[in-house]
Write a structure and sequence with these properties.
Blueprint lengths: L1 H19 L4 E2 L2 E2 L1 H28 L1 H31 L2
Antiparallel strand pairs: 1-2
Helix pairs in contact: 1-2, 2-3
Length: about 90
């Protein structure tokens, strides 16, 4: 029961952290802080989605396996997007 609540809270904290990242733009690009917020927001977001995966796996195992693959690819893509923005801005200094 506690794990499900933590996953529900994580599904709230992940998007909120991600939504805070545009406030740290520098000249139309993500700064170091904004890029790190994007990368760090993936941790609670993926933790929450893994709880949804567990519930979906019982009813649709094949579809949930494909969904997990897309989830992990999206996580790595979002992290690289955030780190690219922070490293691009850092290299211009």
């Amino acid at each position: 029961m506690i794990v499900r609540r933590l996953q529900a809270v994580a599904l709230f904290l992940g998007p909120v952290t991600f939504a805070a990242s545009p406030f740290f733009w520098n000249d139309g690009h993500y700064g170091v802080t904004g890029g790190m917020l994007i990368a760090l927001s993936m941790v609670p977001w993926v933790y929450g989605f893994l709880g949804e995966y567990d519930r979906l796996r019982e009813h649709m195992p094949t579809l949930s396996g494909l969904w997990l693959l897309v989830l992990l690819a999206g996580m790595f893509g979002s992290i690289s997007f955030g780190l690219q923005g922070s490293s691009r801005r850092h290299s211009e200094w």
